[in-house]
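Protein modeling request. Please complete all fields; requests missing the sequence field cannot be processed.
Requester role: graduate student
Desired output: 3D structure, token encoding
Chains: 1
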Amino acid sequence: MHTLFCHLGLLDYRAAYDLQTTLVDRRRRGELDRDLFLVTEHPAVFTLGRRGGREHLLVSEEFLTAEGIELVPIERGGDITFHGPGQLVLYPIIDLRRARLSAGAFVSGLEELMLRLANDWGVPASRDARNRGIWSGGKKLGSVGIAIRHGISFHGLALNVNPSLQPFSWINPCGLAGVEMTSIARESGREVSVRQVMARLPLHLATVFEREFEEIDQADLRLFLAPLPHK
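Delivered output (231 residues):
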């Protein structure tokens, strides 16, 4: 049975969170009979992981309000981070037990996925002991933060393709002081879009996670969210 893959376009962070939790619950109950990868971009938002991170916010919350940027506490792993347009965000809804994947192996797979996408654009990147994710030239290029509920994963990865990097200067990204963020566009010196990078995503997903994928659109996805008939 193929794993599903759906591109959501630009989606509000809270709406994406609600969608994930609904899908996790359906996957747990067997109403969603296969794993599903969601890919999206978000309007500008800061999120706080389980380790918190308000102390790593370098501007006031009033400043963020004036900028129209929300600050959202969330249960994923990690500290404070930024999401915005130009960043490829992937949310895998995976039954890790059935897949026989440990949390550590799963996170390593997400890192490998980002390494391969960066390499497609000639960007040398690697892991770094300072923090999970990927790095290029000492700068953070992609982040990983997952949550697991009843053995089902959600949240995932965020890879900087061509976002505005300025909001990252308003925080200590991932709780690391003095860390600079970068992007595929900056490191490659080329114009590159999320859509271009996403075009390579299914190929690398199939290789890294050893699966076959079936792409569905948002109309198909709504079928998985429709109320089930009473038996």
